[in-house]
Each structure stands twice: as structure tokens, then as C-alpha cells.
Amino acid sequence: MGAIPTFDTAPLDGALAASILDWWHDAGVDLLVEDEPRDWRAPEPARAPALSPQHSPAAAPITAPVALLPDTLEAFLAWRLSDAAPEATWDGVSLTATGPADAALMVLVDCPDREDGEAGQILSGAPGRLFDRMLVAMGQSRETVHIASVCARRPIAGRTPAGLEARLAEIALHHVGLIAPRGLLLLGNAASRAVLGTELTDARGHSHVVDHKSGNCRAVATFHPRFLIEKPMAKAESWKDLQRVMGELNA
């Protein structure tokens, strides 16, 4: 009906199939069907109390020992590119974070896109150009913000392996602590899940307090630029999120 992109899937090559999966993943769709059948006539189970946006699930302790991660930004970024990183065995190249170590605003995405490896930086190509315009609208630039990704390399079909989600989330939160920004902009569903522990659809619309090793910061989640390219109508909602980020930085 206009909100969902349509594709000619005959023939459906690997790149197009991966692109379609990326689109749905950025929209927050993680599966097509559930593993177990659902009894639609069964009473609805009791829901756990909703967490306040002021107290993000990211503040909960994570089982993996944070102390094992390098405690300086220089050492941490070198470790992220080393064979010790969780993604070291994945195909492709690892991309490091960019931007000043004392940035007031940190931007976290899910993973590098396919063209990012050739460009040598996170957020390149058409999504990168849109991202640059988003930064300008906020009075920022790549020279003033710290840009990082949950995954240093791109996983298959752009989806973080379920078995590594907790470890990569811990690493991302440790990275936030090393930068200690005033504001944190989360682009896409995977970034929202890693830092806030919640889906993008639930995280949007308000800011979250995120605790880290150096204190805390305010985080705002919004759509990834690649999703906005496929669904331009969402740009108005994304602009509201960016305005919220600007308000947090100026508070």
C-alpha cells in the first residue's frame, strides 16, 4: 500500500535478497514465523512491568567481564581490528570507529554496509550522503562526532548472529564509556537492541539514560539512513528524533 517496498523477485539474486533482508531488519522485523505454534485463543500472559525510558535496560550488568576489554580508546580500537575480536573470522574487512575521542555526540550503527569496506569508513555511499545531511541539520559533521558500529565487520545478510549479540552489546557499551559523550544517537534496530535492550519501534519517541563505565549519557534511537532511503516518508519522524538529540546536547 505504499509503505512496504515491492521487488521483482524473479530472478532474485543474492545481493537483492540480502538488500530485502536488510530493509526488514532495519524496520525491526527479526523473523517471518515463530519457532513454536501459537494458541491464539489462549489468555494473554501477564506482562512484566514496563521499564521507564529514564532507566534503560543497558544499565543492567552483563555477564561477560568488561574488565577484559582494553581500558584506553587507542588500545580498544586496535583490539577491535585484531584477531581477538568476535568478528575476526567473518568475511570482509574490519572498519574502525572515526571521530574525536572527546566528541559530545557519538553515533552507533549496526554494522558496515557492503560499500563501506571499499570506502574505508562506516556510513558511505548513498546512506553516508544522507547521514552527512542529517549531521548538518543538527549542526554537526563527521569531524565533530564519534562514529562506531556494533559489528566491526558486516555479518551475513547484515544480521548480528544471535550467539554474539550479548558480547557485541557489551563491547559497544564499553566503547560508549571510553568516549563518554553527552549524547548517543543509535541508528537502526540492532544498535537500539545492543545499547537499550529494546526494539527500535519501542525505543523511539523519547530519550533514554544509558549508564556506562564513565557515568551516563542520553541516548536517542532512530532509523538507519539506508531505511530512510527506502522509505522517505519516515524522514519526518527521524527529524523529530534528531531534534531530540539536539535538545539533549544543548541541555
UniProtKB/TrEMBL annotation:
GO molecular function, one term: metal ion binding
Pfam family, one: UDG
Single GO BP term: DNA repair
Residue ranges of coiled coil: none
Source species, domain of life: Bacteria
Keywords for the protein's UniProt record, in alphabetical order: 4Fe-4S, DNA damage, DNA repair, Hydrolase, Iron, Iron-sulfur, Metal-binding
Uracil-DNA glycosylase-like domain location: 96-243
Protein name, UniProt field: Uracil-DNA glycosylase
